[in-house]
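I hope you will forgive my troubling you with a question about protein structure. Here, with my thanks, is the record as I have it:
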Amino acid sequence: MTDPLVFAHYMITFQPPNGDYTHDIQLAKAVGIDAFAVNYGGWGCDWNMLAGFLEKFYQTAAALNFKLFVSYDTTVMTDPAMMVNISDTYAHHPAQLWVDDKIFLSSFSVDPPAFDWQTDVLDRIDGPVMFMPGTLSQSAASTAAENVGSGPFTWMHPASSIEEEAAIDTDFSDQRRVAGKPWMAGIAPWFFKRMGTDMNWLHAQDSGIWLDRWMHLLKLKPNFIEIVTWNDFGESSYIGPVKSFHENRQAKDDCFYGGLNHTAFLDMSKIFIKAFKAGQTNITVAPEEED
């Protein structure tokens, strides 16, 4: 199995200034992030426009020797043929992430899709695939029984306490050893959302979703960690710069809190990522890393 890798979830619908991904990629590389998981989808998105964004993203990443992989957002993306086409288009692109000689892909979802991942998507992709589908399941055994993909990408549970979330992570870590499959754990610095009457919530774990969970994951040693997110301003989960938010009129109208500076989380990420990749279970902060 490949050495531990760290990714950051990138909402492609939020474009960087002038559509130039260079600065974001440079910042990600500087803290040890190995690839962006490109969230493909968005409410009311223009799929043709999104395809153009993705092409430019891959071109820029290749020029900067950085990797990407697509995370299919099945809350809005429901066409398996489109997923196969995109996967085939970028499978052998120099910026495409491969892990253990396989095309790396993922998904982000709330509920299981109406189609079958294996027969409708994975079996139709031209090449071997390591697919880490997103899940909100709290049971590692039931997720393993579904036998979807190469291993789970687990996400947090807003109503769970810090202790309950840690127990869920431990369950998936134990199941990984039983099943012999990789595990990707998601982690976020913050969660707050106030966008419309049906989208008002915050996370029960508050600040514990970042520091406490990082420390627990260092002990559990998942194969991959995905920081969720780089730039989802609407849910306050971003660690990247806010310039793309300030240039998005709709985002500013819908989300009054999305322009706050979260780059301190990015700085902290470098310390945690370094420890994770070194196999350490505790954090040591060098004097030059203190701020």
